[in-house]
Specification:
The protein has four helices and eight strands; from the N terminus they run E-E-H-E-H-E-E-E-E-E-H-H. It is mainly beta and 168 residues long. The chain folds into two domains: 88 residues, Chitinase A, domain 3 (Roll); 49 residues, Thrombin, subunit H. The strands form two sheets. It has a four-stranded antiparallel beta sheet. Strands 4-7-6-5 form a four-stranded antiparallel beta sheet, with no helix packed on it. Strand 1 and strand 2 form a beta hairpin. The longest helix has 7 residues. The termini are far apart.
Length: 168
Amino acid sequence: MKDVIAENKFVELKYQVVDQKTGEPLITIEYPIPYVHGGNDILSPEISSVLEGHAAGEVIEVPIDCNDLYGSRDESLVFTDHIENVPEEYREVGTTITMENEKGEAKNFIVTRVDDKTVTVDGNNPLSGRKVIFKLEILQVRDATDEEIESGGKPDTGPDIEEILKKN
């Protein structure tokens, strides 16, 4: 009998986020994402609940209204400035810039457009205002070990310090 996704099961999956309107892939994660189901918040509750009861080899499609997750798009968080006012390291599309408001609260902005004269940054989540489909491919489902349950996924074993010290 196949293992199915449930509390304390170790799961590996990869996924793609597709815009419902255009069918265009917005995000593609091709490397396996390991986690212990119910043991961490790597996935939104909406997606976690849909995965329960499914097994390795299945592809699940979950429609999500990103307004519910990230709020609606706020055009007041989009700024365009003259390129000479922007440091060179921030003149590349996709660059994240962390800014603080007058209260000292940090907010991330992403450079979304650069031309010869201007740079545009956007403080909205890139999925704000979109309706998307999460396509999740389940690669593996099995009982999680105690160590995996404790860490919420694959434990980060890191380098063997004792072994390194012996060699030096």
